[in-house]
Request: fold
Amino acid sequence: MNQQKVAIVTGSSRGIGAAVAQRLAADGFAVIINYSGSAAAAETLAQQLLQQGRQAMAVQADVSDPAAVRALFDAAERTFGGVDVLVNNAGIMVNASIGETDDASFDRQVAINLKGSFNTLREAAKRLRNGGRIINFSSSVVGMLQPTYGVYAATKAAVEAMTSVLAKELRGKNITVNAVAPGPTATDLFLNGKPQELVERLSKLAPLERLGQPQDIAAAVAFLAGADGGWINGQILRANGGII
Ligand code: NAP
Reply:
C-alpha cells in the first residue's frame, strides 16, 4: 500500500486556504488545517472532512512565530508520521499608499507574509519527505504593481525570490518548490472594506470577466501538489483569469 501523503496548509481556517485543504483532502492527502485566531472555523472544517472519511487535524500556530511553526511540524509528524506537502497560504494585506503606511502595518505584513513563509520554508527544507512539494503564495500584484499595494507586493516579491532560491537549494532531494500568484479572489482579504462598485470593476479586469473563486486557486495548488505537477519546479504560476 502506498504511504499516506500529508499536507500542511497554513492559514486554512478560511478563504483560499480552506478551499485548498478541502481539495487536497479530497485528493487523498491527510491535511493539517493551520490557523492563528479562527479556531471554530478550523475545527468545523476538520470535523467536516473527518465526517467525509478524510484525514484532517486543526492546529493553531501563528506562522510569524518560529517556535509555533516548529510545533506545527512536530504535531503533523506525531499524528501522521511525516510531512510531504507544505502550502504556504497564510497571509494578510493592508491597502495603503507607501506615504500613509504606518510602522505597525508594515511590520505585520512582513512578519506574516515574509517571515511567516520563511519560518515554514526553513522547517520544510529540513523535514519534508522525499518526493515532497512546497507551494508558496505570491500575488498577481507583483506584476500589476498598483498604487496602495507597495508593502504587500514587496512581501510577495520576496516570497517569489525565496521560491526560486529554495528550489535550487533542494537539489538532489526530489522536492519541488513553486508559488501560486492569484489575482483578485472572492475572500475576506479581497472583499473586506471595498465598495461594491470597486469589486465589480476589479472583477471585470481579467479577460474572463469574473473574480477568482477559492476553488480556482485550490485547483492550481492541487496540480502542483499532485502527480501531474511533478516536473514543474522553481516556477511562479499566476492564477488570475488572465489579468496579467
Ligand atoms: P483570508 O480570506 O483573509 O484568509 C487568511 C487565512 O490566513 C485565514 O485562514 C487566517 O486564519 C490565516 N492567517 C492569517 N494570519 C495568520 C498567521 N499569522 N498565522 C497563521 N494563519 C494566519 O485570505 P485569502 O484571500 O484566502 O488569502 C490566502 C493567500 O492568498 C494569502 O497569502 C494572500 O496574500 C494570497 N492572495 C489572495 C488574493 C485574493 O484576492 N484573495 C490575491 C492574491 C494572493 P485566522 O483567521 O485563524 O487568522
In short: The chain is about 45% helix and 15% strand.
